[in-house]
Each structure stands twice: as C-alpha cells, then as structure tokens.
Amino acid sequence: MKWSLSLGRISGIEVFVHWTFLILIAWILFSHLSMGHGWEQSLVGVVFILVLFACVLLHELGHALTGKRYGITTKNIMLLPIGGVANMEKMPEKPIQELWVALAGPAVNLVIAIVLFFVLRQAGDMPSLLDVDGHMSSSSFLYNLFLVNILLAVFNLIPAFPMDGGRVLRALLAMKFDRAKATEIAARTGQFLAIGFVFLGLISNVWLVFIGLFVFLGAGAESNYEATRSVLSKYKVSDALMKKYTLLSADDPIERAVEHLLNGQEKEFLIALNNGLMGFVTRDEIIRGLSELGKSAPLGNIARQDFPALSPEMGLDKAHEMMAKLGISFSPVFMEGELAGVLDTENISEVIMVNKAVTRS
Ligand SMILES: [Zn+2]
C-alpha cells in the first residue's frame, strides 16, 4: 500500500493508516494550541481523535468479520482522515447477507454508545459537551465519544450509497426486485436525498453541501458498477473469447516479446513450457523485466503463473470478478484441459459497449 503505514493484522486483515492522517493530527494540535489551550488539553484533543478512529476501525471490522462469515475476504482496512474503508473483495449477493454485512458497522458504534451510556450513568453525570472554556474534562471526553458514536451510526445509516444505509436499502429492495433494479432504485433514492442535502446545506451548513456531493457521486458509481455486472451476467466467456494470440517459449529472451510488442497490437503473450502452458506476460511484466533483468533473460523468469481457471461456458461476470480478484487484465481460457483462447479486460469492455449500443437502438 503506497503512502500508508501498516498497523498490523487483525484476524488476517491488514490495517493501514494513510499518511495524510498526520495532517489531521497536526491540524487538531494546532487548532487547540491556537485557541490558547495548554499542551495537556491539546494532547487530550489528539487522544480523542485517536480513540475516535479506533471506533471507526471497529466499525470496519464489524463489516469485515461479518463478511468473513459468508466467505468474503477483506484484503485490508484503510484509515483515512475522512474515515475508514474496508477493502472487501465484493459484497455478498444474497440480500439477507448483504443486509447483515451492511448493518454490522453501524451496529458496532451503537454497541459502543450503549456501553458508554452505562459507564457515564454509573459515574452519575451526563455532563455538557464541553465546559465553559471549551475544555474537555475526563467525563466530557467519554460523553463526546458517546455522542460521536451515535453520530457515526446515524450518518452511516443514511439510505444512500456509498453509505451503509444505501446497502441496507438495496438489500431490502433486492428481496422483492432483482439486484440491478434494486440498485437502481436505491441509487435514485440516494441521489434524491443528496440533492436535498445540497439545498439544505446552502441555506444552513456548508458541510451538508459536501456530504450531498459525496453521496451523489457515490450513488452514481454504485449504479454503474451494478449495471456493468448485470450486463456481463447475460454473456458467457465464449462471447468475449479471442482465438488469436501469440505463444512464446519460456526459453525465449525478453527481447523476443519486446519485438512482438512493438510490431503489433498485442500487449499480452502466452508463455509455453514443455508443450504445456506456463503462464503469460503483459506489457507491464515485459517492461519491468527489461529494466530489472535485461533483454536476454528468459521469459520464463518473468511470466505470471497465477491465472484463474476460466472456461468458455462460464458467465462473463464471474470471469471478470475472478480476474479482478487476482488483479490481472488477461487470462488464458481452457476447455477440457486444452487452450481455447484468451480473455482480456479490454474485450470485456467492448462487450459492454456493444451491448449498450444495441439496447439503445
Ligand atoms: Zn460502514
């Protein structure tokens, strides 16, 4: 992960914090000091932010660990100054599972809030937000944390993508409609709400304008993603299969692949070893191999050997998902152990474009 620091792993999920987080900490410290608060008060402010982000991390873990129960892996969790992101490989498709995964995050904040509520009540006082000088005492620290967790739960349950509430709404709708339709209705609802936020923001609080824009863009992105998926699900791998490809030998030098790269349209080549298929190289591997190993190193040394088991009969949406999971844009396709052709993401995009053109006319 670029520009980020690993904090370690929690049940197999690596947690990263983005370097811009330092700016947030510096800003908090600076704003406290500039208000004339002493070092001690300012540090309490910083600690508050750190504890708050621990709550955000727990929220993301809520999503990730619930997803894990349904067999969905989370690659990592990234903490950014604007919040956390659990990088899940996908959302569960069964509506009831998506519902639980989406609800798990806000539920964590609600549980934290309930615990804090009892702790505060035990302590005997529900103090005001801040005391007269804007100082945070130890009890107002917990009270603030209580409020912020309620806020996190409520904010995330706004029924609009990319908020958890958008997924809750989609999951509920998907129990009645198909997923593409449910996504469209949920996205429209979210965008309608977003426009409301912008208007409300213009007459009251400028932050609402930003939230509105954020929600509006998020809703659009989600419905595009789902539209793509639903188009692809109508096709098979064989519909996008390319039968023209170049097979090079694992013993060939890298410069052989460079020649092909420069002389034609192809950017990816299959690599054969002992009459079998070893793997493939794309332009990225060729260029990197050229600079790191030189032009006469064998292609076998740079070939990627991690490709999914794709067959022509497989759904194109499934194939696309498997390729995305491995982070590859190219893959050989096999039929009964024999090479049937190759598939690349460019061809998949062309299928989508052709589909759009046909349905429009
Ligand atoms: Zn969430």
TrEMBL record:
<feature type="active site">
    <location>
        <position position="60"/>
    </location>
</feature>
<feature type="transmembrane region" description="Helical">
    <location>
        <begin position="12"/>
        <end position="30"/>
    </location>
</feature>
<feature type="binding site">
    <location>
        <position position="164"/>
    </location>
    <ligand>
        <name>Zn(2+)</name>
    </ligand>
</feature>
<dbReference type="InterPro" id="IPR016483">
    <property type="entry name" value="UCP006404_Pept_M50_CBS"/>
</dbReference>
<keyword id="KW-1133">Transmembrane helix</keyword>
<keyword id="KW-0862">Zinc</keyword>
<keyword id="KW-0472">Membrane</keyword>
<dbReference type="Pfam" id="PF00571">
    <property type="entry name" value="CBS"/>
</dbReference>
<feature type="domain" description="Peptidase M50">
    <location>
        <begin position="137"/>
        <end position="195"/>
    </location>
</feature>
<protein>
    <recommendedName>
        <fullName>Zinc metalloprotease</fullName>
    </recommendedName>
</protein>
<keyword id="KW-0677">Repeat</keyword>
<dbReference type="GO" id="GO:0046872">
    <property type="term" value="F:metal ion binding"/>
</dbReference>
<dbReference type="GO" id="GO:0008237">
    <property type="term" value="F:metallopeptidase activity"/>
</dbReference>
<feature type="transmembrane region" description="Helical">
    <location>
        <begin position="42"/>
        <end position="61"/>
    </location>
</feature>
<feature type="binding site">
    <location>
        <position position="63"/>
    </location>
    <ligand>
        <name>Zn(2+)</name>
    </ligand>
</feature>
<comment type="similarity">
    <text>Belongs to the peptidase M50B family.</text>
</comment>
<feature type="transmembrane region" description="Helical">
    <location>
        <begin position="140"/>
        <end position="161"/>
    </location>
</feature>
<dbReference type="GO" id="GO:0005886">
    <property type="term" value="C:plasma membrane"/>
</dbReference>
<keyword id="KW-0482">Metalloprotease</keyword>
<keyword id="KW-0645">Protease</keyword>
<dbReference type="InterPro" id="IPR046342">
    <property type="entry name" value="CBS_dom_sf"/>
</dbReference>
<feature type="transmembrane region" description="Helical">
    <location>
        <begin position="99"/>
        <end position="120"/>
    </location>
</feature>
<keyword id="KW-0479">Metal-binding</keyword>
<feature type="binding site">
    <location>
        <position position="59"/>
    </location>
    <ligand>
        <name>Zn(2+)</name>
    </ligand>
</feature>
<dbReference type="Pfam" id="PF02163">
    <property type="entry name" value="Peptidase_M50"/>
</dbReference>
<dbReference type="GO" id="GO:0006508">
    <property type="term" value="P:proteolysis"/>
</dbReference>
<keyword id="KW-1003">Cell membrane</keyword>
<keyword id="KW-0378">Hydrolase</keyword>
<feature type="domain" description="CBS">
    <location>
        <begin position="300"/>
        <end position="352"/>
    </location>
</feature>
<keyword id="KW-0129">CBS domain</keyword>
<dbReference type="InterPro" id="IPR008915">
    <property type="entry name" value="Peptidase_M50"/>
</dbReference>
<dbReference type="InterPro" id="IPR000644">
    <property type="entry name" value="CBS_dom"/>
</dbReference>
<feature type="domain" description="Peptidase M50">
    <location>
        <begin position="48"/>
        <end position="120"/>
    </location>
</feature>
<feature type="transmembrane region" description="Helical">
    <location>
        <begin position="192"/>
        <end position="219"/>
    </location>
</feature>
<keyword id="KW-0812">Transmembrane</keyword>
